[in-house]
Specification:
alpha/beta; elongated; membrane; 593 residues; ABC transporter transmembrane region fold; 2 domains; Rossmann fold; binds adenosine-5'-triphosphate; six-stranded mixed beta sheet; 10% strand; four-stranded antiparallel beta sheet
Length: 593
């Protein structure tokens, strides 16, 4: 029920601007239904007139007055009504397709824009595939429902009511006969559809599990190959595939049963209607011509009568998928957004520095990660943050750029709390080089100029040179115009980071955060990264998360973090002389290096 409320609110939000067009569709649909249910009346009339004409024509006494004109009139009216039915159906289907593609386009933009306003927490707690499926399966389901199901629901319901009214207008007894089998039809349709739905749900679940397995195996392909586990991987895939196959077969079997079953019931109904109609002519003293016409009318109605029942039950599934999709999308729209203070202070240039004052923070309420961390970064200084894995280094970085808000304490730029700073001006002055560098689809040049699209070619090349990646780019067949994306990259991990450093250099940030990624690269690239980092750091206030201690020997201050607490602070020499945790860490690393 809550799902339906969410879905209604969501649809109302996006469809209300089309109320005029939607009202027009409703009116045209009702008109179309009227033409559709009225046409058989003229068909019956044509038969009655034809029958009257034939009996007059074949009777010598009335032969002279026999006229085909009334028959032709009825035929004309029937053709007009059929044509009007087709024309109005086309108009309403055209307009509703237009509305649904416009509305789903707006929904797509709304969702994309919402994601851009979302907090990092949302992306940290949701998988890429899950987010992507909002755009693919959920929006597709909503579009299908708007395009077909909602229009169908309206037109089929109107048709159902229209046929019943017309049948009672034409002949009450035959109307009751035609409708007598309705409960059987509804029960049969409902039974078949609910069985089909059950297996279609199972099929979706099983497909989800199978995809999860495929995803995991593809991600772990290198390990599978190195361990020679390909056969085991195939063998384990078998049961997943088998379950999908079984559920697909059963789902398709039941949904495939619906139409033949309803067709059978409709034919049975037809036979009953014809039988009872002829009984009325013989036993109820009905005029033969009128009776024949009436039988034709009811043959038509009884054929049409089952159509809404079949259609409405079969689109139920489509509607349910759309309701679930709308609920999932409205959940996304209800998620918290990044809080940008109204008339927040603008950061112009960093004047004194950045401070972290007694920071407490946890990603969840039940677990605190940082317990009172204080760090002072003076303008122009390079501060290095070191510590064992899981000690909270990345977490500190997340707070510096206001990806998350602290629970207690404050992060200040020039003495101003980041929560009072205009977010854009904060981010404009902070440059980040992440451990994992991302390439966007486009050329190498597009990637370097990503944060500064108006930079000149010279500025771009200068940034690439400072980042030690220019020479490599020049070896590519199309140089800076080489096409890349994250999947199809000509760059190694280390080179990607160099490119990312070039991108940051070009934005010329006041304050730099570097999450060092030297752990997985060869020594030549490591040296290049080191030189590039030295270039980007020069003359800037910077904060480096270091994994390799030899990269931070020249830091103005090294802060050692352990279990979310600062345990040591000082220059390299001071810390080594202290003989504490850092000193031990340093000597251990030197042994391995
Ligand atoms: N998005 C998150 N949600 C919940 N907990 C998180 C999240 N990110 C990190 N943590 C937890 O916070 C703690 C500190 O993690 P953090 O990534 O800051 O450590 P780190 O010092 O950067 O580690 P590493 O050197 O391995 O990168 C860890 O216990 C981790 O499990």
């Amino acid at each position: 029920m809550a799902d339906i409320q969410h879905a209604i609110k969501y649809f109302a939000k996006y469809l209300k601007r089309y109320w005029l067009a939607l009202s027009f569709v409703a009116i045209v649909t009702i008109a179309s239904t009227y033409f559709q249910v009225k046409a058989p009346v003229y068909m019956g009339k044509a038969i009655t007139e034809l029958s009257t004409y034939l009996s007059q024509y074949l009777n010598p006494q009335t032969h002279a007055i026999a006229s085909k004109t009334p028959f032709y009139h009825a035929l004309e009216a029937m053709m007009i009504f059929f044509t009007l039915t087709a024309a109005t159906m086309f108009i309403s289907s055209f307009i509703s397709s237009r509305i649904s593609s416009e509305a789903s386009g707006r929904m797509r933009i709304g969702l994309f824009a919402k994601l851009q306003r979302m907090t990092i927490k949302y992306f940290d707690t949701h998988q890429d595939g899950e987010i992507l499926s909002l755009f693919t399966s959920d929006l597709d389901n909503i579009f299908n429902a708007m395009n077909q199901a909602i229009f169908q629901l309206l037109s089929q319901f109107a048709l159902f009511v229209g046929i019943i009214i017309m049948m009672f207008q034409q002949n009450v007894k035959l109307a009751w006969v035609t409708m007598a089998s309705t409960p059987v039809a509804i029960i049969v349709a409902w039974f078949v559809i609910s069985r089909a739905r059950k297996y279609i749900d199972t099929q979706q679940d099983e497909t989800g599990r199978m995809n999860g397995y495929i995803n995991e195996q593809i991600n772990g392909e290198k390990i599978i190959i190195t361990q020679g586990l390909q056969q085991e991987s195939i063998a384990n895939f078998g049961p997943y595939n088998e379950r999908v196959k079984q559920a697909t077969f059963k789902g398709q079997m039941y949904s495939g049963m619906l139409f033949p079953l309803m067709q059978g019931l409709s034919l049975l109904n037809l036979a009953i209607v014809i039988f009872f109609g002829s009984w009325l002519i013989v036993h109820d003293g009905m005029d033969k011509s009128v009776g024949l016409g009436l039988i034709v009318v009811f043959v038509n109605y009884s054929q049409q009568y089952y159509q809404p029942i079949t259609q409405i039950t079969s689109i139920y599934n489509m509607l349910q998928l759309a309701v679930t999709g709308a609920r999932r999308l409205s959940d996304v729209h209800e998620q918290a957004e990044e809080v940008n203070p109204e008339s927040g202070q603008k950061l112009t240039n960093l004047k004194s520095g950045v401070t972290l004052e007694n920071i407490h923070f946890g990603y969840n309420d039940d677990k605190e990660i940082l317990h009172g961390v204080s760090i002072d970064v003076k303008k122009g200084e390079m501060i290095a943050l070191v510590g064992p894995t899981g000690s909270g280094k990345t977490t500190v970085m997340n707070l510096l750029n206001r990806f998350y808000d602290v629970t207690e304490g404050s992060v200040k730029f020039d003495g101003i709390d980041v929560r009072q700073l205009d977010l854009k001006s904060l981010r404009d002055h902070v440059g980040i080089v992440l451990q994992e560098s991302v390439l966007f689809s486009g050329t190498v040049a597009d990637n370097i100029k990503f944060g500064e699209p108006n930079a000149t070619k010279e500025e771009m090349i200068d940034a690439a040179k400072q980042a030690n990646i220019h020479d490599f780019i020049m070896t590519l067949p199309e140089g800076y115009q080489t096409k890349v994306d994250d999947e199809n990259s000509v760059f190694s991990t280390g080179q990607k980071q160099l490119l990312s450093i070039a991108r940051t250099i070009l934005t010329n940030p006041d304050f730099l955060i570097l999450d060092e990624a030297t752990s997985n690269v060869d020594t030549v690239t490591e040296a290049k990264i080191q030189a590039a980092m030295d270039n980007v750091i020069a003359g800037r206030t910077s904060f480096v998360i270091a994994h390799r201690l030899k990269t931070i020997l020249g830091a103005d201050k090294i802060v050692v973090l352990k279990d979310g607490r600062v345990i040591e602070k000082g220059s390299h020499q001071e810390l080594v002389a202290e003989g504490g945790f850092y000193s031990e860490l340093y000597h251990n690393q030197m042994v391995f290096d």
